[in-house]
Design goal:
Order of helices and strands: EHEHEHEHEHEHHHE
Low-confidence stretches: none
Radius of gyration: 17 Å
Strand order of the largest sheet: 3-2-1-4-5-6-7
CATH superfamily: NAD(P)-binding Rossmann-like Domain
Helix content: 40-55%
Strand content: 15-25%
CATH topology: Rossmann fold
Distance between the termini: 48 Å
Structural class: alpha/beta
């Protein structure tokens, strides 16, 4: 086994939005970082450059988390990247962040719409995690990104929220089954965040921002920089006794 002093985190969907902030915050905690991106290669390389400028190692790999048959090839590329860029054959923390928005009333939802969300948000998370477990060091951790929509029901989000609820249940089972390896598994559930997620669903709608602000104890919608630090914390020894938990990061939405 290769020697590597620094802990390594893998963040899916790390080229923009929440994932970018997570990657930068993880580097700020002294971890080396591998991010994945779907089609924004230039954005991903910019994040890699930012992390490199901070003194940590970083790399980016292309991955569509909704295409499950591609995971075998991804694992092979990840092994090569770990060896070439990090002098390692394993990594320590997996952050399942990659996702996409999807909004439809129940009576209008098509099977194709449902399946696309299912593959990205649940089936992809389940089987990518399964494929990566042999490459994870004992004593590491998994952070699955969910949503405040598993607790608060907003019309149009039934399919998306149901997938995220499944991920939350899956996380508890990961914690139980991986406990013997010292691998922790937790959920971070952001509230309403102003990013380009869902084509800027919240960011571009001032009336929606006002509604969110009115039902949030801290009086505003969230921004990406509100989330990454919580994920980074969960990937440190300070959080070594936090396991099988759902941590909502929403500023106190609808409390």
């Amino acid at each position: 086994m290769m020697e590597n002093k620094n802990k390594i985190a893998l963040v899916t969907g790390g080229s923009r939005g929440l994932g970018k902030d997570m990657a930068l915050r993880l580097a700020g905690k002294g971890l080396d970082v591998i991010i994945t991106y779907n089609n924004r290669a230039a954005d991903a390389e910019h994040v890699v450059d930012q992390i490199g400028a901070s003194g940590r190692k970083a790399a980016a790999l292309q991955l569509n988390t909704g295409v499950i048959p591609s995971f075998g090839n991804f694992v092979d590329r990840l092994k090569d990247t770990l060896a070439e860029h990090f002098g390692a054959d394993r990594f320590d923390f997996l952050v399942n962040n990659a996702g996409q928005g999807g909004y439809s009333p129940i009576h209008e939802a098509t099977e194709a719409f449902f399946d696309e969300l299912l593959n990205v948000h649940f089936k992809g998370v389940y089987f990518l995690t399964q494929k990566l477990l042999p490459l994870m060091n004992d004593g590491g951790g998994i952070v699955n990104v969910s949503s405040g929509l598993t607790r608060v029901s907003v019309p149009g989000s039934s399919a998306y929220a149901a997938m995220k609820s499944a991920v939350e249940t899956f996380t508890r089972y990961l914690a139980k089954e991986l406990g013997s390896r010292g691998i922790r598994a937790n959920v971070v559930a952001p509230g309403a965040i102003m990013t380009d997620f869902g084509n800027g669903h919240l960011r571009n709608d001032e009336s929606l921002q006002k509604m969110v602000s009115s039902v949030t104890a801290l009086g505003r919608p969230g921004v990406a920089e509100d989330i990454g630090g919580v994920v980074a914390f969960l990937c440190t020894d300070e959080a070594r006794w936090v396991n099988a938990q759902r941590i909502e990061v929403s500023g106190g939405m609808m409390v």
